[in-house]
Amino acid sequence: MKTDLQIAQECTMEPIVSVAAKAGIPEEYLECYGKYKAKISAAYDAELKDRPNGRLILVTAVNPTPAGEGKTTVTIGLTQALQKMGKNAITCLREPSLGPCMGVKGGAAGGGYAQVVPMEDINLHFTGDLHAITTANNLLASMVDNHIQQGNELNIDPRKIAWKRCVDLNDRQLRNVISGLGGKVNGVPREDGFQITVASEIMAIFCLASDLKQLKEMLGRIIVGYTYDDEPVTAKQVGADGAMTVLLKDALQPNLVQTLEHTPAIIHGGPFANIAHGCNSVRATKTALKLADYVVTEAGFGADLGAEKFFDIKCRKAGIRPDAVVLVATIRALKYNGGVAKADLSSENLDALAKGFVNLEKHIENIQKYGVPVVVTLNHFVADTDAEVTYVKERCEGLGATFAVAKVWADGGEGGIPLAEKVLETLETKENNFHVLYEDSLSIEEKVNKICREIYGAGTVNFSAAAKKTLAQIEKLGFGDFPVCIAKTQYSLSDDPKALGRPEGFEVTVKELRISAGAGFIVALLGDIMTMPGLPKQPAALNIDIDEDGNVVGLF
């Protein structure tokens, strides 16, 4: 069997100017990065602003398992299927992070015959957006420390600096460090630390800003630390907002590539959904909605994380609304939730399937709470039996969800036509009453409770002493109307990664609250969640190499 990388390398790509022409983008508005990648110039915005919006389709999934779900693969395959049916469709995805590519997750460009290309470039340095975000983040960090070193006019307390440095790799050694050692000339010694780039508030800002003006304003509002009098100090006060915006100027323009079937694909921004808000950029989505009749996008990890944040953060802030949701599951993942070991997932087991179906059931119910019609799709594996597929179909339809099987990994767009037909039917026949889960007027504590109880199924929500202290600070600073971005494990509806299926009535503790004043939301950390991952015992980097002809091997 061919690997995803081999399939991608066998693709004869079209020049990116030809792909752009399919989307109606004139060549003069492209900034090309070689033959197969381009940025869509900011100058094109003026041409698009008066065009009507297309229909927005969100792809989300059940909680991820070692069995695999294939959310990105289905997103790409659905777009290819719509194109095969003569529809004007574009896919919008996030940019992969080098951390997971070199770590445990592998690449994030789809799989099989539903991929975006050039796959190696997309999974590695791409157009340098993540490097620009890393540099802007670290410029701010260096300017904060330099301000303290050069007299500290703002009276910043070095013990209360909230801004961490970042790097786009998994490196546990950098989670907690001491910086500024070596004498007075080398700075003020203090505790410091790194996050992975995708967890940086700048990544969130980058993905929520609609233009350069808004980007600069949001960057300026970042709280970098506090004074000795406990007053917040912002990036604008430090004087870093202008230079940071300059570093991000080119990166803010969306990236255009293509699928294996030459459908236009916009890939831009890359926050994780377990530690951030998990959606591609607002700018990319809004551009796509002006270019296409159907825009297929995805939100990270399970619907309890990615979809909830897509609805409650991205849609709220961007003023957009989804027209339908595709919820991806696999027979294998449901059986895994039902207690079957990974090695035994290929054997038919209706009892385990029934047991594990509750995870899918909860996600269907959650999406329905937002008033959006949902289409459940099984990402098909060859070991799936007719009896298993029929069981899931009947259960889904009994819950009021439309159902379809997707065979996009094996058959590309052709294998996604049954799903595309159901999506189109849903768009035309099902009522869409989209609304967010909570109103801005609720307190942060009430918002956290609402998400934990209604979306996760928690019974009790506790706040640590540190979190309660921050709650008071949030109210004092006037940020109580912000939405909430919960950071928790992606592997369970709860904050316990081992609690599979549909845990109910469990207790969660908000260990910490962080103010993302620039991005405009409050981050609530549940359980043992870290914003700097580590490498596994056998990192994917061990298998990545290059042959004598310059071809990448072992990627994904």
Task: Give an account of the 3D structure.
- The chain is an alpha/beta fold and 556 residues long.
- Helix content is 37%, strand content 20%.
- It is built from 20 helices and 25 strands.
- Strands 1, 2, 3, 4, 5, 6, 14, 15, 16, 17, 18 and 19 form a 12-stranded mixed sheet that branches. A 4-stranded mixed sheet has the order 20-22-23-21.
- A hairpin with a 5-residue loop joins strand 24 (545-546) and strand 25 (552-553).
- The two termini are 14 Å apart.
- The mean pLDDT is 95.
Summary tags:
single chain, 556 residues, alpha/beta, 12-stranded mixed beta sheet, 4-stranded mixed beta sheet, 25 strands
What's the helical proportion of residues? 25-40%
Q: What general form does the structure show?
A: globular
How many whole angstroms does the radius of gyration measure?
A: 23 Å
Task: Work out the helix count.
Answer: 20
The helix-and-strand class reads alpha/beta
State the assembly state of the protein chains. single chain
Beta-strand share of residues:
15-25%
Question: What is the total tally of β strands?
Answer: 25
Mean pLDDT: 95
Taking the sheet with the most strands, its summary is: 12 strands, mixed
User: How far apart are the termini?
Assistant: 14 Å
Low-confidence stretches: none
